[in-house]
């Protein structure tokens, strides 16, 4: 099985990667600031569910398709960018009433969870990253590669939960202030919209 030293190094690298600015942690940050800590945690759960899909894809070799097929990569890339632009459109249209309240939080949180899942799954860079990153810490001499990759994927998800959960917790503290100011709510929605547009353009510009 995987040695403890390798697990330690892999976990440290995963935490560092989680802290690096990117579409996922920025999404958690903005949603936590807008809707509170719980919303950020639901987004984090959705993103980690997406990571389960990517881990499975790498473990069974499906992710290799994205590394070799331009059509598959571009299809997912365009779909992912389109979804980000949809989120931007929603953010630009949102008003202060778009902030979640207790009576509709269940529906809103489920929606944020689904957003997290879709955002992660439709980002082909995550599939390519997992395909390139996870196998570096696996070794056929230590047993089943498939099992090792699933273990590494699980460790990466744990690191992501810790990092993104922390981001949601601290950013959520700003949420109480935002809820008291309609003007700040609208400004935050506009900022989120600009961020989504930027992420969509960045994704479209991505090459394999």
- What value does the Rg take, in angstroms? 18 Å
Largest sheet: number of strands, sense, barrel closure: none
- Proportion of strand residues: under 5%
Number of helices: 9
- Quickly give the structural class: mainly alpha
Distance between the termini: 32 Å
Residue-averaged pLDDT, rounded?
A: 79
**How many runs of DSSP E, i.e. beta strands?**
0
Helix content: over 70%
**Any idea how many domains?**
1
Overall body shape: globular
Low-confidence stretches: 97-104
H/E element sequence? HHHHHHHHH
Structure report:
This protein is mainly alpha-helical and 208 residues long. It has one domain (24-204). The chain contains nine helices and no strands. The protein has helices at 4-19, 23-35, 37-60, 64-68, 70-93, 105-121, 124-133, 145-179, 182-204. Helix 2 packs parallel to helix 8, helix 2 (23-35) packs antiparallel against helix 9 (182-204) and helix 3 (37-60) packs parallel to helix 6. The longest helix has 35 residues, at 145-179. Residues 97-104 have low confidence and may be disordered.
Give descriptors for this structure.
208 residues, mainly alpha, globular
Write the layout of secondary structure elements.
Blueprint: H1 4-19, H2 23-35, H3 37-60, H4 64-68, H5 70-93, H6 105-121, H7 124-133, H8 145-179, H9 182-204
Helix pairs in contact: 1-8, 2-3, 2-8, 2-9, 3-6, 3-7, 3-8, 5-9
């Amino acid at each position: 099985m995987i040695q403890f030293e390798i697990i330690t190094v892999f976990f440290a690298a995963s935490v560092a990667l989680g802290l690096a600015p990117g579409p996922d942690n920025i999404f958690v940050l903005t949603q936590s600031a807008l809707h509170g800590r719980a919303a950020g945690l639901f987004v984090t759960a959705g993103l980690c569910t997406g990571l389960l899909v990517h881990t499975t894809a790498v473990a069974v070799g499906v992710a290799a398709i994205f590394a070799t097929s331009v059509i598959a990569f571009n299809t997912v890339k365009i779909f992912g960018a389109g979804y980000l632009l949809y989120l931007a459109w929603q953010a630009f249209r949102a008003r202060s009433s778009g902030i979640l309240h207790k009576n509709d939080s269940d529906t809103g949180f489920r929606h944020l969870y689904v957003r997290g899942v879709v955002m992660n799954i439709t980002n082909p860079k995550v599939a390519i990253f997992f395909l390139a990153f996870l196998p570096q810490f696996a070794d056929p001499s230590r047993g089943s590669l498939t099992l090792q990759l699933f273990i590494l994927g699980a460790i990466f998800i744990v690191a992501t939960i810790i990092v993104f959960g922390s981001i949601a917790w601290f950013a959520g503290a700003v949420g109480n202030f935002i809820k008291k100011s309609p003007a700040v709510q609208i400004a935050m929605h506009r900022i989120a919209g600009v961020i989504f547009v930027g992420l969509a353009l960045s994704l479209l510009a991505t090459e394999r």
